[in-house]
Amino acid sequence: HTTSRSYFTSMNQPQSNILLSLVQGDAGRGWASGRQGWKQMNDNACEWEGIECNQYNEVISILITQTAFSGTLPAVLGTLTSLRELRMGKNKMHGTIPPSIAALPNLVNVNLAENRITGTLHPFRSIKLRTLDLGSNDLHGSIPASFLAADSSFQYLSMTKNRLSSTIPESLSNLISIDTLNLSDNNLHGTIPRSLGKLALLKHLHLNNNFFVGQIPPTLATSHPINGKVGDLLEKIYLQDNQLSGKVPIQLADLSNLKELVIHENKLTGQVPNDICSETINSYFFQGNFPPLLERNYCDAIACPVDTVASDGSYPCIHCDNRHYNPYIGQTRECNIYTNQREILRKMYVSTTIHGKWDGQNNWGDDEVFLCDLSGVTCDSNFYVTEINLSNRGLKGTIPGELGFLQYLEKIDVSDNQLTGFLPSDLQWAPIQNLDISGNKIRGIIPPKLCLTGINGNGYNGDYNCGHIACPEGTYSPSGRKDLKQKHDCLPCPHNNPEVLGYKACRELGVASGVFGAIVAIVTLSVAITGFVVIRMKRKKNYFKHVHVANELEMQTPINRENWPQEGEIKPSAGAIQEFHSPARQSMRNNPHLYSSTDRYQPIARSEKNENNRSSLAHLKGESTDGVSNRLRTDLSVSASVKTSKSYNSHCSNESPS
């Protein structure tokens, strides 16, 4: 029994074969050639280097760390259902993480950091999971909403230095025992969830180098009673290099164990509250003998004040010159926010031509052109820029935040271009009344500060809604935003697409509608053609049937020459009889109104029919209708059941010559 469990998995495949699937190809075999057990390829995998088993000889650990291993993770590893530890960090692994591995039910520790793993994330299903490190790879896409099924014992999560591009799922706030959360150096966006304040045992929070907007949540400093003690254990908070705005919350002063607070290179305003500043926070900035203890500004160790810059965003701080302005604290770059309008527009031109020139003619690259004569630019009487209209010009790149420092700018229209990136919160500084970014590839969310302005009628009747600026990701409207005048609202797209702001039409919906419309058109046309053919065939059939009956009548009607008029009287000949029939038939063919609407092949009333026949004969003879009635009375039927009530002789026997 032990042997069976030793060599075979639940799928009756030897554990050794499953592990050998790790080392396929020349590179894998080369790696295995120098490893104990892997080279000999003996059946007892429990004796191989880096493999650990339990008392039943089931593989429970794969420990191959920092060995230059260059294989992939085969899906068949997901059959090692007793596997608890998968530690293969600091190698040269490539490929993806198969869903079968993420679904292993007994995983406790997973470390695949510092490899070349690509692909998207799959939910990890083990409720026993304690640590997960996927940092320094090339993972992309979203963090699944139900990414971790771990219970309250989960402690460590790192996915730093990847290309993840989503918001932080609220489900991460359920990891109440986590002490380290590292999502830095990705493309994450949105706001920092307030619910992270529920992580009472959190010590290290790394969210730096992303695209987060909004405020620093004061809830990070919320007190959590744990066994009668305050559980504010946060020691390190890294939020630098984002788009966070607002002021630094004074509640952070309640974090008694805080040692490092790094917030530079955001859009934070105001000043660092003095209650937060202390010699214990970011103390490494003052290492050495400078400046003297009494001259130290501990707030500068957290972030340099407004209108200054520093290489690291904190002490020592350098003031900006008169040509530049910096409204934010903790800035690391040069004072590159210009007060000069021409410099700001030049920044606009540079940032939207990085990936190619604009479509059509433009004079923005000509420094000799007067500012207000630039294409798409409108100025007031004092030569202040009030409007920028560059709709449908093939702009590629990003919207520069410097536009927010055009003090009189009221309108920006950059719709229907190929702009990417995120909407800068700096636009909050300009008195913008109309903003159109629809029809681009701008991502993320609308900066909360912008949502509190009156852009595009936002805030009318006290209703502030970010949708007035642009429809959020996964929604659309014909104008790309919520428009009260045109009664446009932001509606959800199928499959929660697209992941851009200001979408005007759902691609999937448009394709489906087009296909459906084409099908309807084809079916309608087919029905119409079929109906037309059927009607024509029936009419033709009825016509020939009538002609056949009329000819039979003509052949069957006897001509009694004894009753013909005498000399001096008009004698109708056989040709006259044929002339009598032919106009009637011709009249029937040329007068489709002789058929009723309910049945096109029903004859009209007898009296109306006879009147038509008399009219036709009168036209033939050149006589009036009454004259013909007196000379010739014929009942010619146009239906298939036509019957003669009298012979031609009986019609003419009592006639006298005119």
UniProtKB/TrEMBL annotation:
GO cellular component entries: membrane
Assigned keywords, A-Z: Membrane, Repeat, Transmembrane, Transmembrane helix
Compartment list: Cell envelope; Membrane
Ranges of biased composition (kind: Polar residues): 636-658
Record InterPro entries: Leu-rich_rpt (IPR001611), LRR_dom_sf (IPR032675), PGIP (IPR051848)
Region Disordered: start-end pairs: 606-658
Pfam family, one: LRR_1
Membrane-crossing segments per the record: 514-535
Major location category of this protein: other
Protein name as annotated: Leucine-rich repeat-containing N-terminal plant-type domain-containing protein
